[in-house]
Each structure stands twice: as C-alpha cells, then as structure tokens.
Batch of 2 targets.
Target 1
Amino acid sequence: MTADPQHFARFEPFDPIEGIVIREPVGVGPGYWVGAPGVMFDETDGAFYCLYRVRRPRGVEPDRGAEVHLARSADGVAFEDIWTGTKDQLGTTSIERSAIRRLEPHRWALYTSFVDPADGRWRTDLVEADRPEAFDLRTHRPVFIAGDLGVEGVKDPFVFQVAGLYHMVLSFATASGSDKADAMHGTHDAYNTGLIRSATGLATSHDGLDWKWQGEIFGPGHDGWDRYCSRIGCLWQSGGVWLAIYDGSADVSENYEERAGLCYSHDLRTFHRVSRDGPVMTTPRGHGAIRYFDVLDFPHATYFYYEMAREDGAHDLRVFVRTK
C-alpha cells in the first residue's frame, strides 16, 4: 500500500515488551534500575557505544546511581562492557544519564550528570580521553553548574551534531514556588520533591568542549498527563522534521516512572507536542514506565534504546530494532 503523501514525519509506536533486553538490573523490585542509555554509532571504527547507569534503592549500598558503564557492540544489540566509572570518583551521591562523542580522530568526550557535592543540585560535566576505555571521572570539569544558570538542576545530556555544530539537549529544573534550598535539595534530588518544574533546554558548541546555553526549548504545560515533567531524551530527523521522544509525568508521584511522549520541531528551538491526550507509548508492567529513549536512525533500520519497567517494579535496558 502506498503511504499517504500528506502525512509527514510519520511515527509508528511499537510494543516495548518486544524489545531485546540488553542489561538486567542488579536486584529485584522498585529502585533497582538499569538504563538511562546514551548511545552513539562511531563511523570510524564501525561500532556502537552505549553508556548506561546502574542504580539501587536508597539505603542499599552503594545506593542510587552508583555506577556508569560503557559498552561496545558490532551490531547494536549484543554489547560488551569496556569501562566502568563510579560515583566515589566524582565525590557524588548519584550519577544520572551520560553521553559520549568522538571529538577528533584520537579524542573522545564523555558528558555525565551527577549530584553536585557542593549544593546538592544536579550538574553536567565533561571528561576527555584518547580512547573510550581510558576515561577517568576524577578528571571531570564543568559544562553546566546549576547555580551558574540560575536553575535548580541540569542533567541528562543528549549530544549530536548539525553541519558540524555540536548540540546538547538537557533536562533542567526551575523552582515552582518560593521554597528554600533545603526543601528542594536536602535529599539531593530536587526532581523528586514536587517543588520544581522539569523542562528541556538546549546548548551549542563549536568544538564539543565549550558550551553556550541557549535556553528552554520544551516544557510541561499547565495541565495534562505531562504537566510536571517534559524531558526530551533524544531526537532524530524524519522527512526534514525533527522528531523527539520525551519523558512525561503528571506529578512527583510519577517521578522515576515516566512514560514516553512525542513532539516535533522545524528549528530545534520550538517543539510542538503531539501526545496531548496521553503518552505515545507505555507498558502494562510495573508502574508503566518507559523512559530515557535514545534513537539511532540508519537507512536500513532504526534502533530504539530505552529503560522499561518490569512486573516486579525494577527497570531493564532494551533495544527495539525496526527494519525499513
């Protein structure tokens, strides 16, 4: 059947349960999560790279986001770990999503987000190395510190290039009221307090090292299923339009259990919400969480990487491959 020539940038949801499990959590039950993938394909060596975070519940040592792993694959499905970083190397209570890019033939960058030990806010930093196996989190330097931007947290980088210019999409939090810092940051996770607004911002860089904040590009509305959090996790081009999958939640009770929404943009500065009446994808398992998408779109297939809830409340890391 011929496709509708007036239906542009078509997106067809899929059943996330059909995805292939890449990594299992280290425990059973809520709070045991593996995911927040940051994926890239390196055309120089023809390999897929996937950064993922391992988390345990608060109180189960080493609790929260204690580890970030880097895995390599020849086919984008079967991954082998080649590097591990731990939160003690950053002096932090938790690590969140990270991203990786090759900057030069022999220079790599790892962008990681973690709780700033100075003030309990999420921040995003950079680590450089001459090869992916050689990253050392102890050599991190700031990309964005929340206080410098006048926000309550900045994390979850997604990095890509357009005509050689680097772009970074980030989650950032602003206060939704007049609450004091202790109320928002006393638990070292303002996003889980209900006292913030969780939106999406953009930054750009000519070299992948020095970044300029461009401001908000997408945020939660006043009502709807995604009125608390609207966090773009990834984007890709389809028919000349930027499609983006975002994590959405209605209130703080759904923090950590977000579901997937869809939006689009023509200019990477203004995004239009498609999934107004509900998430574009969810799962009947656990609390229904399907979040932290990353997408690699090739001429022959599209690879969707995501974190998904299991029946026991834990989260695993999956990939769904759609051939064209």
Target 2
Amino acid sequence: MPSSHPLADTTRAKARQIRRHAIDMVYRAKQGHPGGDMSVTDILSVLYFGVLRLDPANPNDPRRDRFVLSKGHCTGALYATLAEKGFFPVEQLQTYMQPLSRLNGHPNRNYTPGVETNTGPLGHGMPVAVGIAIAGQIDKADFRTFVVVGDGELQEGSNWEAAMTAGHRKLANLTLIIDRNGLQQGARTEDTAALDPLADKWRAFGWEVVEIDGHDHDALLTVLAAPIAGRTRPLCVIARTHKGQGVSYMRDQVSWHHGVPNQAQYELALQEIG
C-alpha cells in the first residue's frame, strides 16, 4: 500500500535500522529491554525523522523541541535513534552498558548528547515534560514538548497528578504518546491494574485524545506533525503497539520485557527485521 505521507518511507527505513541496532546492542551487552525497544521504535523514528525541530550540532538550542522518554529502560531504541540522527557516532552503540560508556542502561543527559532529562524510575518523565511545557507557555516560546510513556508506567500516580495539571493549564504545546503494548514486566497491564477505558480517563482530565496504530508511520506522522495552531488542550496519543514488534518470537511475549537473544535468535531477529 503506497504511503500517504511524504516522509513515511524515510521513517520506516530508519525504524528498520534502529531495530537492527537495538537488537545488536542488547546481544552484545547481554542485558536490556528488547521487547519495549521494538514496540517504541516506530514512534521514535517518526518523531526524530519527521516531527521534532532539533539540531544535533546544537543539542541545547533553546528553540529546540523537547522530547522525554519516560519509559527510560528502553535505551536501546533511544540511543540507536540518537546515533542515526547524528548526536554521536553510530560506532559508539557498541559500547552500550559497558564500563565507562556514556550509553547507560537508563538515559543521562550529563553523559549523552540529545537526552533531554534523566529517566528510568517510572512515573518521572511525564511530570518533567509537563514542567517543560509550562515553562514554554510562560515564556510564550514556540517549542513543543513530547513525552513517551509506557502503558504499565501509568500505574504510577505521579502521571495522573501531572495529567491533571496539564489539563488545568491547557498545555496545548504538550503531546503525550502512550506506548500501549498491553504488557509490562511479568504480566499484562489489564491483569495487573486495569487501565481501560484509557481514552475516557484522559478526556476526563481535560485532554484531547487520539487513538492510532503505533506502527503505522502514515498515521503517526499525520497526528504528531500536525500544527498546534488552534489547539486549546494537551494531546494524548494512545499508540496501539506490540511488544517485540518486528521479531516473531518476541512479539506480544511478556518474557521479552527483559531477555537477551542467543546467537541463533540474534541472527533470526536481524533476518526478520531486514
């Protein structure tokens, strides 16, 4: 089916490369979160190669759009995206989680160019993103703030305090993307602490809500790249995804929240990703 968005072919090709890097990084490091890396890759590819206004040569440009990966354990996908964007050499991905590497298991802005804020403890990124958006609103700045959270992460109460604040302040410059793969560490989200009806919850907090296929690049680009002129509320994008997307034996398998592929699985993953 032909792409309807002019950047979709580019972002899909980048997503394929990001997935290959992320699998290789986890395989080399013998640790990581490959299932979540695979589910969030298409979202990251669309943001960095089709939406965000930023300059790798000037990562602290005050005019830049801000991006926060609240599900900070998925650094395989994040670092691969930053490297492909040019924030640091792709070759440095081979140092992932090695001693003295700046590519830690959780992102740290003090070490890694392109990382907006330190994340990892779940429930922290969303409040930080709301604070950034409030600062932009006060300054009447034209940068946008984007934050990606995992669906299991929404069981942390700090997210809902932030959601209430964002809705109250009508932060039209804020976009939240929920990586809704339905799985968290050890179980399905709905078996742990049910989130549905998720869209209704966000609307009740004063947010505009859109639900899309989180692996459909045309849909992601259409929603995330849309201008915010005329918007009066923060936007929540519920992106329906699959844990382990792109790798058959990982797809929708909770065991791959953590997990390291053996050599045969590693080779199969690269073959399937293409």
